[in-house]
Structure formats: C-alpha cells, structure tokens
Amino acid sequence: MKQLRNLLLVTLTLAGLTAAVAQPANDPFAAPVVLTGTSLSTGGTTALATKEVGEPVHAGNNGGKSVWYEWTAPFSASVTITSDGSTFRTLLAAYTGSAVNALNLIASDPEPNFGGAASMTFTASAGTVYKIVVDTRNNGTGGTFTLTLNQAVSPTVTLTSPTANQSFTNPANITLSATASSPGGTVTNVSFYYGGSTLIGFDTTDPFSINWSGMADGNYTLTARATDTAGQTGTSGGRNITIRPDGYFASQLVGSNSVSGSNSVWKYLDDGSDQGTAWITPGFDDSAWLAGPGQLGYGDNDEATLVRSNRLDLSRIATTYYRHTFTVANVSLITNLVARFQRDDGMAMYLNGVEVARNNLASGSLFDGLATANAGDDGNTVFTTNISAGLLLNGANVLAVEIHQDQLTSSDTTWYLELTGSGADGNPAPTVAITNPLNAATFSVGANLLIQATAADANGSVTNVTFFANGTNNLGSDLTAPYSATWNTLPQGTHTLTAVATDDEGASTTSVGVNITVNNYTITPVTLIASNTLWKYLDLGTDEGTAWSEAIFDDATWASGLAELGYGDGGEATVLCCSNAPIKFITTYFRKTFNVANASAVSNLVLSLVRDDGAVVYLNGVEQWRDNLPAGPILYDTLAPASVGGANESTYFTNVFGPTNLVSGNNVLA
Q1: CA–CA gap between residue 29 and residue 139 (Å, rounded)
Q2: C-alpha dihedral (85, 88, 94, 96), degrees to nearest 10
Q3: What DSSP assignment string belongs to 480-547?
Q4: Which residues of 171-181 are buried (b: 16+ CB within 10 A; e: fewer)?
Q5: N or C: which end of the chain has fewer CB within 10 A?
Q6: CB 359 within 8 A of CB 367
Q7: pTM greater than 0.85 (yes/no)
Q8: CA distance 613 to 79
Q9: Cβ–Cβ < 8 Å for 219, 240
Q10: What's the sign of the alpha-carbon dihedral 531, 534, 540, 542?
Q11: How far is Cα 304 from Cα 415, in angstroms, rounded to an integer?
Q12: Are 348 and 279 in contact (CB under 8 A)?
C-alpha cells in the first residue's frame, strides 16, 4: 500500500502541473488578438494550441497548433509580417474572411529551418480585415515566438516654393518651402535637393523651409524628401527653376509677348515668283514688297494680314516669302536667341542670310517645291528653336522666311514668329553681406548693436549701403567702407537685419537676412568646451558610417588626446596617425562629451573651429555646421574641395546656431 500511495501522489502532482498551463487565449479563430497600427511587434505562443475543424492547411503543411491575430489595414500599401525568435518551425499565413472554414488565402510562408523566420509580404487594402495565423509545423510541441508587422507607408511631401518654372536673377536668395505629413508617424525632417541627389539643406521643424543662395547660373530641378519617425521616406515631384546671370534681361526683338495680339510688321511677296536665294540677305531690296502684321496667311479666319493663294492667272502659289528687319544696339549683351513660330505647312528661316531653322521642308527646295507633309495642326502648334546669337549684327538685322504648301490645292497657310534675345545688361548688381552680428545671435533689451557689412561692385563702385531691421525700419546708411550702422536701444523680440548695397549705375542688391533675438534678461557667456580640452578620436582611416556622431555611440575603445589634435604643423598637443605615411587617411573622427545642467537656459551656441582642411560638426547626431566640404552625404572617403593653407590653417572660424538639439545632461559634439 505504501508503494501505491506514493504512486498516486506523483500522479496527482503531475496532473496539477499540467493543469497550470492553459491554451493560448487566441487559440480559437473567433478570439484573435487584435493588432493596430503600421509598425508593431508582439510576443505569442502556440504551446497547447489546437487546430479547429475546417481550418485550412497553412503554408503547405498540416501543422496542428495555431493561434490567430486580426489586423485592419489603415492604409493601402505593402506590408511585411514575420514570425521569428521561435524554438520551433513556424507556419505563417494571412487570410480574409469571417469563418475559419471559408477563408481566402492572401499570403503564406513556412519557416525554412530552425532559428530562421517565416516572412510574407503583400499589398494590403485600407479598411480590409486580415486574419493572421501562426501554426506549428508537423504539429510539433510549439512554443513562443515574436510576430512583427511593418507597413511601408511613406510620408507625402509637396514643394510649395518656388513655383514651377520660376526664374531668378543672380545673386539670388531663394526660399525653398515644403509641406509634409506622414500617415504612419511624424515627419522628422525635410531635405531639399537639386538634380535628384545634391543636398541643398534640410529643416527639422514644420513649416519646413530653408534659404538657398550662392548657386551658379543654370537650370535646376528641385525636389523635397521627407523622413518620418518610422524611417520611411517620401519624395516630392520635381520642380524646374531657372537661375539667370547677374544683370539678366530679355528683350522682345520681333513679335509680341504672346502668340496673339499686336505683332511686328513683315514685308511679304505673294505673287508666286521665283526669288532664287538673294532675297534672304540683309542687303536685298524689298521696298516693292507688301507689308502687314502677323500672323499672316489665309484660310483660318485668324489672320491679321491676308496673303494671296493664287497668281493673277489663278494658278495656285506654292511659296510665300517673308522678311522682317529689326535693330540691335549692342549685340555683345545678347547671349541667347529663341524663336517661337507657327507655320502651315513647311518653313525655312534665315537670319542675316544664314539658315537657322527648317521645319517640314526638304533642304534645297525650290520656289515651287512642296512641304514634305501636311501640317495637321493647321499652324496652331507653337514651335521653339534656339538661334546662335553670334549671327546678330549691331544695327539692322533681317529675318527671312519661306512658307511652302504641301499641295497646290491647300485651303490655308500660316506664318507667325516671336524672337527673344536675352543676356546680361552689362551692369552686374553689387554684392553685399552682413558680417556682424552673426546669424542667431542673442542680445539684451536696451543694448546698442553695431551692424557691419562688406560690399563690392564688379564693374564700378558701391555708392552706399543702407541697413534695415525687419525690412522697413531704416537704421541708417554708410557711404564708405567699412560699412556700418548702429541700432540703439534694441527692442525685445526677434528681428531680421538686412543691408542694401547700391552701385554707381543704380543697381542694388539686398543681403541675406541675419536673424537676432533680443531678450529682457542678462546673457552670460559660459564655456562648454575649452580650446585645449581632452577629445576622443579615431585615426585609423576606417569607415564609421553615421552612428559615430550619435550621443549614444560607444567610443570607449577610441584614443584620447588634448587639443590641438593633428599633425604636420608642429604645434599639436596630440599628434595623429599617420604623418609620415606616403598615403594618409582622408578622415579622422573626433568626439567630445560635455554636460549642460539646464538646456532651456541656453539661448544660442557659438562654435569656434580651427580645421585643416574640411569639417562637419554634429551635436547629438544632428549636423550643425559644414565648412569646406561639398553638399550631400559625407562619406569617410569624401575629400574637401579645397586645400587650406597659410593663416587659414590656424584661424578660428566661428558659427552661431540655436540650442534646438542641446539636452540637459550629457551632450556629444562630434
């Protein structure tokens, strides 16, 4: 009996242990765990789960222990679902449907091997309810797993400024603005690019906007790229702008400013005669020709001047001749010529006797030659062609055009042209920049502020520089360099300072605005990082990616040394590798941790930097300043565009920036 009693105790104990482990709550199809959002991860288990009657085979395997989840797609976009971290081989599938025995398979995947992950990706439809199942391959013992869901919902971003096809004249200061939103998170920054990949700058606060200046003349395609908290990115459509040279002008040499309206008067010959080739030259005598404004032609009821279709003997005319004389005072100023024209049917155009355009007409066509095809647009299409400005003459110039019908029975003909010349007017505007105070500087109420600027004129002299606060408050003018004005008794608030330089020919330029803040409390400078402090550094020539600039990066294995750090100048407190190597490392990394007790009490940060050759400065992983390095991502093998030499090797360069990325406690300057 004693042996039997012990056996019963053991049996009861085992039964008690078994009863303590229950089936998962989401074992039945009717009781799924509800998932929400676009990015989530949740733990689960299939231990002691069952498979219901009518439940389908998942991922091609009978399984046997399944648990269910339900997710309603918030957006129409691709979604990836994985089951990972399990001690068994999982089966993963997604369905639509409301009954376990009547499901529609959307996607599935079996875990390929132990320690792997089952993963499926499909395009979800917004508002659709998806049933997601995790099953146990071959009805194994099951166990725990992690289910992860990520829907790739990109943020949307739209450029709002500048407008499409807007033109600017250098020196240009262009405001780039964009609106952005993210259905799957919060937009953390918007970056602005030209040419698809060249970074202009970025903004981390809404409304997203930056100023762009110092660009070369030319045509640019701008885009904006938004990044959200989930790491998703979205790019705007391209927007084309033109930046024209300093002193740009455009002059309508022939025609009106639009295809309709009052137009230039043309001489024309519509008698069907053979004019040979002399008629295209400037010296040809067209005094006997008729004259009339464009457009010229017949048959479309929109002509300003009607030309004849028949000779006096009623035979049809194949070709009509046109000439127009216009004057250019100074051809050296015109660098571009653009002609916009309408023709029906074929056309050849000459400037001062040289052919400059041919449309729908074979080369060498005679006076009775026909156009190569019918102008199906009846002359309504406006064609554009560029003409060499080198063909222009000072004084009188002649455009000569021949219009050919495609058949002698044609019912209409059309000719119209505009000619625009553009270039620089010979008086580039002066340049001007405020040198003091620095942008984002902070002052106390009632202080007197000395504002200083530099100005120059490429082809003359600067006659005065006038200083303004907030665009309209005239703070005074200075007629001689160095240019300055004093703003007495500063009022509280945020103010924008500008300087306007005027040259001896009346051209003027407004500087980029400098923003200052005037507070009603005393500002006390505090040194956060001394010039001779101890830095962590890595001088191994390795590619550290981007994580190295973050505050949480572990730099414990990096070397340490006092500033100045470098090699080759003789004044270094810490000599870096490898000054004697024939090929030296391109990039050296530096990090400095410093503490700020109360970041909210900091109004601005002033950084003074000695660098040779180029540097990028980050505060807690966010770029604050870039000096002598190109726009765009900076890689470990990116070279500085210019070599630093002479006094610039030991000069402190200063920049002021706001405390946006400063935190109370430890901060890292990298």
Answers
A1: 17
A2: -130
A3: SSSEEEEE-SPPSEEEEEEEEEEETTS-EEEPPPEEEEEESS------SS-TT-EEEEE-S----TTG
A4: bbbbebbbbbe
A5: N
A6: no
A7: no
A8: 46
A9: yes
A10: negative
A11: 10
A12: no
DSSP alpha helix (H) spans, 20-68: none
Which residue's structure tokens are 């676009």? 38
- Pull the structure tokens for residue 102: 């009547």
Distances in Å between the Cα of 29 and the Cα atoms of 33, 138, 265 are 10, 20, 84
Helix, strand and coil content of the chain, in percent to the nearest 5, comes to 5, 45, 50
Largest CA distance in the chain: 142
pLDDT of residue 263: 63
C-alpha 596: how far from chain center = 35
CA atoms of 93 and 108, how far apart (whole Å): 4
Nearest to 121 by CA among 89, 155, 149: 149
3-state secondary structure of 303: coil
Nearest to 536 by CA among 585, 571, 576: 576
CB-based burial label for 487 (10 Å; 0-12, 13-18, 19+): buried
Q: Over the range 201-222, which residues count as b (16 or more CB within 10 Å of their CB) and which as e?
A: bbbeeeebbbebeebeeeebeb
- pLDDT in the model for residue 14: 30
Instruction: Please identify every stretch of the chain with a pLDDT value under 50, giving residue numbers as ranges.
Output: 1-20, 257-262
How many Å apart are CA 239 and CA 213, to the nearest integer? Answer: 17
Q: How far apart are CA 339 and CA 67, in angstroms?
A: 72
Q: What is the rounded distance in angstroms from the CA atom of residue 256 to the CA atom of residue 612?
A: 56
Is the CB of residue 98 less than 8 Å from the CB of residue 109?
no
pLDDT at 246: 76
Q: What three-state secondary structure class fits 601?
A: helix
DSSP label at residue 61: B
Which residues, other chains included, contact 169 with Cβ-Cβ below 8 Å and sequence gap of 6+? 243, 244, 245, 246, 247, 248
β partners of residue 363: none
> Rounded to an integer, what distance in angstroms lies between the CA atom of residue 204 and that of residue 191?
9
pLDDT at 505: 78
Q: How far apart are CA 558 and CA 670, in angstroms?
A: 13
Enter the tokens of residue 478. 């200075």
Percent of the chain at pLDDT exceeding 70: 93
Q: What is the pLDDT of residue 114?
A: 63
What residue type is 224 in one-letter code?
Answer: A
**Peptide bond just before 245 cis, omega within 30 deg:** no
pLDDT of residue 379: 85
C-alpha radius of gyration, the chain, whole number: 38
Residue 591 CA: distances (Å) to CA of 395, 483, 535: 67, 39, 6
- SS3 of 548, please? helix
What region, left, alpha or beta, does residue 296 occupy, with left being phi > 0 and alpha being psi -120 to 50 degrees? beta
Residue 229: other Cβ atoms inside 10 A: 13
38 vs 314: CA distance, rounded Å:
79
The whole-angstrom separation of Cα 655 and Cα 440 is 9
Query: Quick one: tokens of 135?
Result: 């099953």
159: its two tokens: 């450029």
Residue 323 confidence (pLDDT)? 94
CB 253 within 8 A of CB 373: no
Closest to 289 measured CA to CA, from 324, 313, 254 = 324
Strand boundaries in 56-143, DSSP class E: 67-72, 77-84, 90-96, 104-110, 118-124, 129-136
Say if CB 341 and CB 347 are below 8 A apart.
Answer: yes
